[in-house]
Amino acid sequence: MATPSPSSTKRPAADAPAVPASHAPPPRPVDPPAPQQQPAPETGASPNYSIVVKDVSLWYGTFQALKSVSVNIRQGVITGLIGPSGCGKTTLLRCLNRINERYGNVTTTGEIRVLDKNIYDEDVCLSELRKSVGMVFQRPNPLPISVYENIAFGLRVHSRRGEIKASRRDEMVESALREVKLWDAVKDKLHRRATSLTLEQQQKLCIARLLPLKPRVILMDEPCSALDAEGIERVEEMISNLRENCTIVIVTHNMAQARRATVECIYMLLGEIVEHNKTSELFLNPRNKETEMYIEGRYG
Question: Given this structure, which CATH class describes domain 46-141+215-295?
Answer without folding.
Answer: alpha beta
